[in-house]
């Protein structure tokens, strides 16, 4: 696996008030440059080098809050990275970045720039880029599906949370699967129930799996089932349609 530091810079323009002597609205602007360092694991399938012309699907995995911080090995605690560490082999690339902020949400713009860089420098089939995340990473996966509706071929969210209005911004052609434990006390199952209900009301292709008697750790059941990866591989990106 490769561990590479990626720097993300973004530009924000703010409107504020300059110094003034009377109560009036003044136009102003300030350039603010921020940076994000994302460490990550990148998994290559065993046959990646066999055919130089062959392109491979890629799965973007976003971990939960417990794996955030400065120790990249923490990313191996759950999900596909854990399975890879245990010897499992996948037929596609897996990109697993680490959120460097223990108490902050994912910087999805930075993740998207990292993803674009990986796609540009590897043999990736851009019509078969898949997105998944658990817990805090599940919320980030919902956000990325909203912000980049033409990028992903399929989405799987495990015990994530999201504002229900997000449903109106997701590509209606995007196949979606949602997993949640009905005893989750960290992120209540109602988060998924309400989002799934809204998606179905709007005609989305969404499948909802509820794990009876399972708490917040719905990810072991979800990610250890090979059927999920077979489902991913069966999906190809379709052109977004207007909601």
TrEMBL record:
It comes from the Bacteria. One of its GO terms (molecular function) is hydrolase activity. Keywords: Hydrolase, Signal. Pfam families: Abhydrolase_2 (PF02230). InterPro entries: AB_hydrolase_fold (IPR029058), Plant_Biomass_Hydrol_Est (IPR050955), PLipase/COase/thioEstase (IPR003140). Residues 100-222 form the Phospholipase/carboxylesterase/thioesterase domain. This is Alpha/beta hydrolase family protein. It comes from Arenibacter troitsensis.
């Amino acid at each position: 696996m490769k561990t590479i530091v990626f720097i993300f810079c973004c530009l924000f323009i703010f409107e504020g008030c300059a110094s003034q002597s009377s109560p009036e609205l003044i136009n102003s602007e300030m350039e603010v440059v921020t940076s994000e360092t994302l460490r990550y694991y990148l998994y290559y399938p065993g046959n990646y080098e066999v055919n130089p012309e062959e392109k491979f699907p890629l799965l973007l995995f976003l971990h939960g809050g417990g794996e955030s911080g400065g120790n990249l090995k923490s990313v191996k605690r759950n999900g596909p990275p854990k399975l890879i560490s245990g010897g499992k082999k996948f037929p596609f690339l897996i990109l697993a970045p680490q959120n460097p902020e223990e108490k902050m949400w994912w910087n999805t713009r930075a993740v998207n720039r990292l993803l674009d860089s990986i796609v540009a420098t590897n043999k990736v089939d851009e019509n078969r880029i898949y997105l998944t995340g658990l817990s805090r990473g599940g919320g980030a996966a919902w956000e990325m599906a909203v912000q980049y509706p033409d990028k992903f071929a399929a989405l799987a969210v495990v015990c994530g949370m999201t504002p229900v209005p997000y449903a109106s911004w997701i590509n209606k052609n995007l196949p979606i699967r949602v997993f949640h434990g009905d005893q989750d006390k960290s992120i209540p199952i109602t988060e998924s129930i309400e989002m799934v209900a809204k998606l179905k009301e709007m005609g989305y292709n969404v499948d909802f799996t509820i794990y009876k008697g399972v708490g917040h750790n719905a990810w072991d059941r979800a990610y250890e089932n090979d059927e999920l990866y077979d489902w991913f591989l069966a999906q190809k990106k379709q052109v977004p349609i207007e909601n």
